[in-house]
Amino acid sequence: MKTHSFQHYSHNLGMAVHDAWITTRVRSALAFSEPTLGMHVNVKTHAGTVALSGRVNTHKECERVVELARSVNGVNEIDAKDLLTHVFTPGHLPEAPNAEESTEYRPQSSAKKMDDQ
């Protein structure tokens, strides 16, 4: 029973070390490629799946971050659903604003002002 417990613990420890190594390598790839990307993108790894989050300026930068992370040996999958651009969230289509929900200030029309005189 104790042997099984030790093997399970050592496997989990080995996986945690492997994930930390992958995270470090992905962060390094981002920092060496484009230093500004490394500063704005967070990287977490669990069981070989790299989760990217943060904000980048363009969709092209988002694709570049995913490409760099994918190029690191040991990465099984990329989860970039929390990697946002200033324009839209990847995986979601941008929606047109609803004019009826707008809280925009609109001055009174000039016709009403003339009626008051």
Automatic annotation (TrEMBL):
<protein>
    <submittedName>
        <fullName>Phospholipid-binding protein</fullName>
    </submittedName>
</protein>
<dbReference type="Pfam" id="PF04972">
    <property type="entry name" value="BON"/>
</dbReference>
<feature type="region of interest" description="Disordered">
    <location>
        <begin position="89"/>
        <end position="117"/>
    </location>
</feature>
<dbReference type="InterPro" id="IPR051686">
    <property type="entry name" value="Lipoprotein_DolP"/>
</dbReference>
<feature type="domain" description="BON">
    <location>
        <begin position="18"/>
        <end position="87"/>
    </location>
</feature>
<dbReference type="InterPro" id="IPR007055">
    <property type="entry name" value="BON_dom"/>
</dbReference>
